[in-house]
Each structure stands twice: as structure tokens, then as C-alpha cells.
């Protein structure tokens, strides 16, 4: 934790030009807070999808169904810290909702520069991705 470098929280940063930008607040966390070996992990979750109302056969006022999604580019796997944290969240949500009435599951969606899309390592089309996100096709949860 250096504390000496001032970050502009609004300016995009590119640590690796061939990758997506590093968000300034994430860089600040990495530089200012303890490292994983010191017992601190900060992870971001890329997407939460909520399906509700008539789309899933419920009233608008009823609670919907949701899924947690981590998006990866090119590589499929999540690192150790992400796996431990996301699996803990998944286990707690599944224990609270074993019949999947609200929590659908945790998924890893992988995009590649070649246009390939995978969910949990299974190659799918863009149309299948749309169907999955709309709740029209079922894909088993990653965990």
C-alpha cells in the first residue's frame, strides 16, 4: 500500500493496452488496501440479471428471479480468490432458495475476439445467449 500515487477516479486507465480498462477505483483499492496474502480480497461482480413480471409468469409487484454473472474475455477460468468468494455467495443464496424460486445461479460468460461466446465453458450462439438471459433456456449453474 503506497499511498503516494494520486488517482483521478474519473479517468480510464489501461495497464495492458490489449485488455479492457482498469477502473480507477479498483486500482485505488489494489494500491491502498491490504493484499490477499494479508487477508483482504476485493472482487467486483460484472452483472446481475433480473427477470420479473409477466416474462416469468408473475405479477409486476412480485419478486423476480435473478442470476449472478462474471464476464471474462478470452480466458474462461476465474482465479482462486474469485472462486472462493463467488462460491461462498452461491452456497448461501442456494441454501436460502434451494428450489430456485428466486436465485437461478452463478454463471461465467466468456467472450472472445473471434466472436465465440461460452457460458460455463459451453459454446453457444448469440441467440442462445439472449434466450438464456431471458430465461427461455436452462444452463446449469457454474457451482
Report on this model:
With 143 residues, the chain is of the alpha+beta class. The chain folds into 2 domains: 8-42, no CATH class; 44-133, no CATH class. Helices cover 24% and strands 20% of the residues. The protein contains 3 helices and 5 strands; from the N terminus they run αββαβββα. A 5-stranded mixed beta sheet has the order 1-2-3-4-5. The model has no long low-confidence stretch (mean pLDDT 88).
Shape: globular
Q: Helix coverage percent of residues?
A: 10-25%
Distance between the termini: 33 Å
Mean of residue pLDDT? 88
User: Taking Cα atoms only, what radius of gyration do you get, to the nearest Å?
Assistant: 18 Å
Estimated structural class: alpha+beta
Largest sheet: 5 strands, mixed
Residue fraction in strands: 15-25%
The H/E string reads: HEEHEEEH
> How many structural domains are formed by the residues?
2
**Strand ordering within the main sheet:** 1-2-3-4-5
Continuous helix count: 3
Amino acid at each position: 500500500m503506497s499511498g503516494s500515487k494520486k488517482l483521478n477516479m474519473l479517468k480510464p486507465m489501461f495497464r495492458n493496452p490489449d485488455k479492457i480498462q482498469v477502473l480507477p477505483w479498483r486500482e485505488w483499492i489494489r494500491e491502498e488496501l491490504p493484499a490477499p496474502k494479508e487477508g483482504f480480497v476485493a472482487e467486483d461482480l460484472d452483472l446481475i440479471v433480473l427477470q420479473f413480471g409477466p416474462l416469468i409468469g408473475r405479477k409486476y409487484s412480485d419478486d423476480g428471479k435473478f442470476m449472478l454473472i462474471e464476464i471474462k474475455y478470452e480466458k474462461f477460468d476465474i482465479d482462486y480468490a474469485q472462486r472462493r468468494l463467488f462460491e461462498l455467495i452461491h452456497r448461501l443464496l442456494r441454501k436460502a432458495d434451494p428450489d430456485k424460486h428466486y436465485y437461478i445461479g452463478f454463471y461465467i460468460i466468456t467472450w472472445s475476439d473471434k466472436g465465440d461466446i461460452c457460458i460455463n465453458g459451453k459454446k453457444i450462439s448469440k441467440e442462445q445467449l439472449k434466450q438464456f438471459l431471458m430465461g427461455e433456456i436452462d444452463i446449469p449453474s457454474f457451482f
